[in-house]
Amino acid sequence: MGQLVRFFRDSWAELRRVTWTSMSEIRASTWIVITMVLAFTLAVGVIDNILLFLFRLVLG
Hints:
This protein has 60 residues and is mainly α. It is built from two helices and no strands. 88% of the residues lie in helices and 0% in strands.
């Protein structure tokens, strides 16, 4: 039981030493991720439609 208490006490002490990301940095990073996902989705969709067009052209 003593080891479990020590584990939680040490874990709590470690969490107090962590430098947490600010809310503004989290928001900025979130918008970057959303923007990149949308851009990647758009690029894949465009490539998919181009390939679909080419396959239909070749295969009749």
